[in-house]
Design a protein that fits this description.
Blueprint lengths: L1 H29 L3 H27 L6 H26 L16 H5 L3 H26 L14
Helix pairs in contact: 1-2, 1-3, 2-3, 2-5
Length: 156
């Protein structure tokens, strides 16, 4: 639980201003498709990571799961939330309105350099939502929800 709190509050407060512009500079030269290709990948990843986060949290709090298994689900939740925070920090740099991290009225340097970046990522997110819903359906079919084991004797 401490890791989840660190992932939710410390990571965004500490690093968001640091990695936003650098992510897009890195993606421009290193990612297939450049910054716009990375925006598509990030947009697809956000809904899927959100679903994985909620899945991990729901499994981590089930009292009938073994302690080690609950710990593994908690670690998965922390990884998902930290990854989402990195993506949200990068996404915040792309908004053309609102000033971004420096508060300038014309947006950030990233939003001026790639004017359609936020639209590209948003469109990919809209495509990613049905994919995340399909993932939930497949997961529920493969691993149906189970109730806690009933330890009372057989009914007579």
């Amino acid at each position: 639980m401490v890791g989840l709190i660190l992932g939710l509050f410390v990571v965004p407060g500490w690093g968001k201003g640091q990695w936003g512009p650098e992510v897009w500079r890195w993606a421009e030269t290193s990612w297939p498709g450049g910054a716009y290709g990375f925006a598509v990948a990030a947009g697809l990843a956000v809904p899927l990571l959100a679903v994985l986060f909620f899945l991990c949290v729901s499994k981590a709090v089930e009292p009938w799961e073994a302690r080690l298994r609950r710990c593994a689900w908690s670690v998965g939740a922390v990884v998902c939330v930290v990854t989402l925070e990195v993506l949200f920090g990068a996404i915040a740099e792309t908004w053309p309105f609102g000033g971004g991290r420096r508060g300038s009225p014309g947006g950030t340097d990233t939003s001026r350099r790639y004017p359609a970046l936020w639209v590209t990522g948003f469109a990919a997110t809209l495509v990613g939502v049905p994919l995340a819903m399909a993932f939930v359906r497949v997961y529920d079919r493969l691993f149906p929800p189970r109730a806690p084991a009933n330890h009372s004797g057989p009914a007579s």
